Amino acid sequence: MSEAASEQPLLQVRGVQTYYGKICALRGVDVDVPRGKIVTLIGANGAGKSTLMMTICGSPKPREGRVIYNGEDITGLPTHEIMSRDIAQSPEGRRIFPRMTVLENLQMGAMASKQDTFDGDLRRIFDLFPRLKERQAQRGGTLSGGEQQMLAIGRALMSRPKLLLLDEPSLGLAPLIVKQIFNVIQELNRTDGLTVFLVEQNAFHALRLAHHAYVMVNGAITMQGTGKELLAREEVRAAYLEGGRH
Amino acid sequence: MADPQASASSNHGAGEQVELENLRSGLSGEPPAISPRRGGAKSQLSASLVDAVVAGALAAALGFFFIGLRSDIAPGGLALTQRWGALVIAVAIVFVGRLLLNLFVYKRRRSAPPKARAPKATTSRGETYARFSKAIAPVLLLVALAFPFLMIWGAPQQSRQYIDLSILILTYVMLGWGLNIVVGLAGLLDLGYVAFYAVGAYSFALLAKYLGLGFWTCLPLAGILAACWGMILGFPVLRLRGDYLAIVTLAFGEIIRVILLNWSNFTGGPNGISGVPKPTLFGYEFKSGAGGVADLLGIHYSPIQRFIFLYYIILVLALLTNFVTLRLRRLPIGRAWEALREDEIACRSLGINTTNTKLTAFATGAMFGGFAGSFFATRQGFISPESFTFLESAIILAIVVLGGLGSQIGVVIASVVMIGGIELLRNLTFLKAIFGPDFDPTQYRMLIFGLAMVVIMVWKPRGLVSSRSPTAIYKRKTRIGADMVAQGEGH
């Protein structure tokens, strides 16, 4: 890899506009996710966070702008091709396969990867989430919400991604589980150098974790900075944090 | 602004979203607990009486025209007969029946405290089942292999009839297994499966008629052609799921039939194609005289030999279907089918090409349908579009659904019950003694069908065999009990 390529961010979103029919959901969004960093995107309900996530994954496709991964323009590619490029996503609402066992769910995560490293990867996931090891023969749908989220992240990690896209991993989870999951994300980033793009409503946790953060309002980025900077800013506190710290 | 997730989902089609919502609601929340009804026996009795009176009144209102009045064709128009006696009897039956149900069946269920289900218990039950099915499978296979000879030995008079019936059942088993790939594994509701059966049958019949090809040459060709038609159907329906897909596949099934019906020059139209060649054993025919198989083996010729041969052909074809399905389930493509049934969006986010996955499911299912079709053609010797009506699709789908989506043994049980059951009805001559000589039990088969379906869906909503064995085992083998499968999820 050339020097220039390694310096440029792993994921670049440039002037992306996404529409649902006539409704404009993203109005020219620019986001950079540098290598080995955790970047978070916070915003209220309906700000367009998940739309950005889905746009990166190629469904829906942006009307304007480009998505560049690792120096390659992936804007027009079908979802499954994007997802087979060292990108993994843990989608919003977890979307595990409810009737398949935990182990089968994890197997599904390894479908796209070409290397045969299944056993090692599986051991690593079980080390990260010992609960999944206990429950490996259980049906995905019978897991608790927290375990399902662990499974969704574990499944995403099975493809050995360089970039992990996480869409609201804290959705509907108890604070203790949220903390546990965020710890794992941090650990993955520190030890493996995994690049993480995190979309969150739980601004406090997300900002504390992030190297860099964006705030999205009505389909546009209104603020950005390091996590600590944003955490300290009055307007962020007022809009996303007050009363919600836990 | 709308919730982005909701809009994003609606981008993939409304059907998908509805399904997702079903899935979510199916997974979340507690099962509705039935609170035990308190109060003495007296209030129980009066409540039951009131309920029975209401039921009786409803029966009276409904039966007023249906039972109470009867119109007969009479000279100069219709004559109206009044049958109030029959109506009173019907209402009385409803009243008493409802009262008894209330007092003895419903009451108990209401007063019984909701049982807490321990997941461990279901697992161990699942394990028992797994062990049982593992032990029973070779036995069943041996019985299937020995069946024709058992019949000849045990019931020489009716052996031909029974072997013929078992051939029919096995055809439906094979069709059920083929459709199971599409509906049970990939979760694509296909109401027009009979189209592929028809394509297979007509491929063989037409190739034999115009090119003079034999069964064994045409069998793979019929499978390939049916698979192609599966793909052709697959392409336009790629974006559809659930109800929408069902409607389109239903239309497809009818289109094929109507084309076969109207393209008289080529397909023979409603007259069909007759003289479809019989299968040969390595080029030797089953016939009397020189050059036949019996002559070759030096045994006396009997027409039953051909039936036995057909039986083994369909047995091998069905077992092939089963074997391929079971193997595919353990391969990435089979797992992708199952994942597709569970959650299409998650599949895509894992880098699975859902287009290819759906097309392979359609094509594989269609291929086995095609094999079964060409077998059907060779067995009958005559085919016409009449054999490929929607009712056939419905029966095959019913076999798959009643047997338990995705369950192989369930399909076998359902085929035996449904196809064998209909034939059994024909033999229930003693019913004529009860209901009079005009009584024809087969006239009631659709009624019994419907009743059986309602009963099974109430009693076992996910089919007879609703447990699913995992395809991957890390350490210990367990099965997922039916009790742990939430209703309303999947199809």
From TrEMBL, chain A:
This chain's source organism reads: Faunimonas pinastri
Q: Which CDD domains match?
A: ABC_TM1139_LivF_branched
Q: In the UniProt record, does the keyword Plastid occur?
A: no
Assigned protein family = Belongs to the ABC transporter superfamily.
Q: Name one GO molecular function term.
A: ATP hydrolysis activity
Coiled-coil region(s): none
* Entry annotated with the keyword Nucleotide-binding: yes
The GO annotation for biological process reads: L-amino acid transport
Q: Which domain of life is it from?
A: Bacteria
Pfam families noted in UniProt: ABC_tran
Name this protein carries in UniProt: Branched-chain amino acid transport system ATP-binding protein
All copies of the ABC transporter domain together span 11-243
InterPro entries for the chain? AAA+_ATPase, ABC_branched_ATPase_LivF/BraG, ABC_transporter-like_ATP-bd, ABC_transporter-like_CS, BCAA_Transport_ATP-bd_LivF, P-loop_NTPase
Q: Which UniProt keywords apply?
A: Amino-acid transport, ATP-binding, Nucleotide-binding, Transport
UniProtKB/TrEMBL annotation, chain B:
Q: How does it sit in the membrane?
A: Multi-pass membrane protein
Q: Where is the composition biased (Polar residues)?
A: 1-12
Q: Where is this region: Disordered?
A: 1-39
Pfam families from the UniProt entry:
BPD_transp_2, DUF3382
Main location (coarse class): membrane
InterPro entries linked: ABC_transp_permease (IPR001851), LivHM_N (IPR021807), LivM-like (IPR043428)
Q: What is this protein called?
A: Amino acid/amide ABC transporter membrane protein 2, HAAT family
Q: Which organism is it from?
A: Faunimonas pinastri
Biological classification of the source: Bacteria, Pseudomonadati, Pseudomonadota, Alphaproteobacteria, Hyphomicrobiales
